[in-house]
Amino acid sequence: MSTSADIPSKSRRTYQTSTIRTVLSLPPQWLHMYDEFITKNASQVSQIESALRSLTYIIPGRFRDAEIASETLHSGVQLLSLYHDTLLMRALSRIPLPRLPSPHSRYTKYWTQRSPMYRRIAMLLQMVTYTQLLCEMAAKRRGGERGRWRVIVLLEAIKAFCRLLLLRVTRARPLVTPVLPEREPIPEEPEGDGGDGALKELMDESVNGHVVDADADADTPKPHEKEWVMPRTGTHLPSLPKPGDISGYLLGKVLTADDIKPAARLLNQLQGGAQAAEVLHVLAPLIYAIALSRSKNKKSWTPWLIGLSVEYAARQLRDRSFRTTPLEREEWSKRGWAMGWWTMRGAFYENVMKGVVGGVRSRVPGIVGGILEDYEYLWENYYFSTSA
After folding, report:
1. Taking CA 352 as the corner, what is the angle to CA 350 and CA 356, rounded to the nearest 5 degrees?
2. How far is the C-alpha of 182 from the C-alpha of 311, rounded, in Å?
3. Per the record, where are the segments of Basic and acidic residues compositional bias (predicted)?
4. N or C: the chain end with fewer CB closer than 10 Å?
């Protein structure tokens, strides 16, 4: 039998247990509230993220006195944006979009939803890409140049391994940049007037007792440019075209072959030389990093020529036939523009671009020159500042 002294102890234990459960249930509730806030204020959150990124780019002395602190802020914003992208993609999956998404968005969304392996690998690849410069800075401070190059080669090996796995998961289809779907704006909900206001505007009738004046506000869309929302079903009826732009209106409504093609077929499976080109493109950064780590002279052309040769060989071996899809051509176009970063790497920067950048810095205003000087320090001392 329990004594009277045992009753308070039991009630105390019960109270402690309930308190612990209450405390443990708070973080999921806070996270759910945060998710709802991000979903309902997507545009404002995007503006804040953009402002924080811009701030890390233009902070004076960013890369000398507080390089790790500033890069930590930048990497944190990037990782937080990655989490926000996941939340908004879930919200968009429950909303019928008024327009067709881009081929890149359709393709990446297809693989992230269809293959959990693709989603995990792509997420890891994006996280490594967002934090690679921060890892290099920390490695240099802790282990010096030797430790820094070990981390660089390790990170490039992880990225190459992830990309090769993605190549296998997608059944030898070309990789896209970025490997995850890009953020799309969430369409705003229609106002609560049930479409009566829009209908009255279309009929040039009064709204709330006031006659609609077409010249009152030049920024507001004209009645024939607005979509009308049906009150009962919520269906959007398209606006009528302008009399002088009927051809453009009709062309905008035409579906292309990529619009009706299954998402998996937006990129063809690679074979033979095209597959070798993709593998070379994946391995080019790793080969360049290994060659650069073994070179003791920063002005040596050998590592730079090795890396550029592998990248150029990949471009020459790629499939140029008529079977290439528009998304594949777009991806190779991005890679072509990205090859411009080779002018800011290794021996080419040390022997050529360094003097050019110094000359430009001496001719621009002081504030711009100070920011450019900070970036010079970054380009000269950190590998991942010009790496993809």
Report:
1. 105
2. 26
3. 219-229
4. N
- Nearest partner of 183 among 99, 83, 295, 298, judged by Cα: 83
Task: Using the structure block, give the residue that is written with the tokens 């996270």.
Answer: 31
- Residue 46 identity: S
Cβ–Cβ under 8 Å, residues 55 and 77: no
Counting every residue written for the chain, the total comes to: 388
pLDDT digits (tens, 9 = 90+) for 50-80: 777 777 766 644 545 567 887 888 888 888 8
Q: Evaluate if residue 31 carries a pLDDT over 90.
A: no
Up-side HSE of residue 297: CA atoms within 13 Å toward CB? 8
Which of 361, 379, 359 shows the shortest CA–CA distance to 370? 361
- What separation in angstroms does the CA of 314 have from each of 178, 195, 308, 339? 19, 55, 10, 12
- The pTM of the whole model exceeds 0.70: yes
Task: Produce one character per residue of 271-309: b if its CB has 16 or more CB atoms within 10 Å, e if not.
Answer: eeebbebbbbbbbbbbbbbbbbbebeeeebeebbebbbe
CA 317 vs CA 170, 280, 320: distances in Å:
20, 9, 9
d(CA 171, CA 180): 17
Q: Which amino acid is at 230?
A: M
Residues 6+ apart with CB under 8 A from 324: 268
C-alpha span between 80 and 63 (Å, rounded): 22
